[in-house]
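Lab meeting minutes (informal)
Scribe: AK
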Amino acid sequence: MKSFAKILLISVALQMQQAIPAQEAIGTSELVQANNAFAVELYSCLAKQPGNFVCSPFSIDTALTMASAGARGTTARQMAKVLYDSNTNADLHAEFGDFLDRLKGINTSDTQFLVANSLWVQRGYPFLKPFQELLHNNYQAGLMQIDLTGWPAEFNPTVAAAARKQINDWAANQTGGKINEFLPRTLPAQNTRLILLDAVYFKGLWAAHFETRLTTNSVFQIRTRESVSVPTMHIRGDFPYYYDEDFQALQLPYVSNRLSMLILLPKKNDGLSELEESITVPRIEHVSLTGDSQQKTIAVSRIEQVCQLISMRTVDVSLPRFTETSEFNLEEPLKAMGMIDAFQEDNADFSGITTGKPFFMEAAIHEARLSVDEQGTEAAAVAGLSFADDDKSSPPPAFVADHPFLYLVRDNVTGTILFMGRVVDPSKK
């Protein structure tokens, strides 16, 4: 059997109460198109489970892209295909670094936005400097050399617990205390050699907030014969709005006009499944991405189509307050998307990370939390990858979200989807 070493890659994304009005659309780059294609495809996989859920495809994408810097051969090609990356060389990471710099423009006097990355490496382990330097130069990942497990001696649970606390404290500091203990007690494990963190923090308010005095309990139709009474917010205002025979779309901007929440509400009470299936159907142009012996086409999704067709309209809005927390094991969804070798101890190739024992991806996990109230939106997400060894003229339209709907938090400038989810039962926490 091959001998592998263990590495943990974790991405943390936090979105706190924020608000932003609509802003003129700016053409998306190939990288953003790739990121959003990954987001929609991942959502499609995760949506197979029942009930509410929320995820941060941006966080997961960032984590996987950083990990791909150390992948080689078929493993690298599969990861590039899943991530819709047009290349697997350093140009990708330089472009991603420039993209992250653009996102810093979200941070204004009205909006807080933070991206922080770090590498927690086992002290004394033979990591390759080019990998560390690439992540430092393009993702500003700070290098923290600590003892994760007691290596090279026997695994020391006390050492692992101390490392876990130090890492969790860093994550809590970067996320305003909203994510405090995302590393489970099982990590670091016996062969953990690296933990990579990506933290994103965002805070703001709605551009037009909902008056609390107008909030009333209203019926939300979960399914044909089942409903719940939930606190529902109300507002009339001018918002970007779109409708067709299948669904309505409403864009609720946040204060700085940089970010917004886009809500897709099916016309039929039981139309969410059909809507979810339709968002991945090619609607307009295609962008071909060609890489090492592989080609994948980005189909501009229905979401992008809606963003192009949406226009200002006076709308009567009814929206339930909701909070959702979700946890995912991403291994099967990522395998279904084509990232197979990374999880196989005999086939994985992450030789760009270390000169020591080979790595394979032991686990891929994700947890996200999002809440919406009268003031704005709050969300947090954690993604983790663990590598181990083998051992207006007429009455305004009414946008009444009283049945299941899909939503996403989106950067209006780059078009990047940061968070994505659905509400089936807003009474569930």
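Next up, CB showed the second protein from the same session:
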Amino acid sequence: MRARTLSLSMLAAASLAACGRADLPLTGADAAPARAVAAAAAPICVNFNVPPVGALFGAPVGTVPGSVVWVENGIPVSVHKFLQSTGAFSFNWMRIEPAPAAFTLAAGNTGHTNNINAGFNFTGLPFIPTKVTFHFLHLGGYENLSVNGSPLVVTLLTPPPTPIGGVNAAAVWAGVPGGVQGTVTLSGGPVKSLIVGGQEFWLDDVCAYP
């Protein structure tokens, strides 16, 4: 009987050896360490939350074109002349306002531009963005767009001109009462700066991605 017991023990040991470690429970010191999963880098955004509601920039308050009017999350925001379809320039105002009811893509405050452009400089970030997105509400007129210092284009953002400033521009949009709202994506190359504005135009969530 002792010999039979010994034989069975040796058979079990041989079976385990043939199966290998994959059949052993992964517990204690033998457990393989969990592989770290790299977290996706969060975007850095201008959400128009630094100036108070009602803050006004532009000709009515004596702002000089090209001036930086605030810095949000390391992104300087400036105001610039607006190119009319006639070829003339205007410089009216940008005001910080709660999101209009039609602008459901926005949250909190927005930048309302009226015949003026807003500028965003991404060169001070810890990375050069390969993608920039922004939400917009268009309730009339037309827009200006410039990327990476390209000449201003008088356009609509439905869709935007592409390529522009060495990157691709695309938009998705939908009708809302009185106009359209949507999201523009700039991608396919470094995005160092953006200038955008309109006549009856709101902006929110200008976001830069590594």
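CB comment: Residues 1-39 have pLDDT under 50 and may be disordered.
No objections, moving on.
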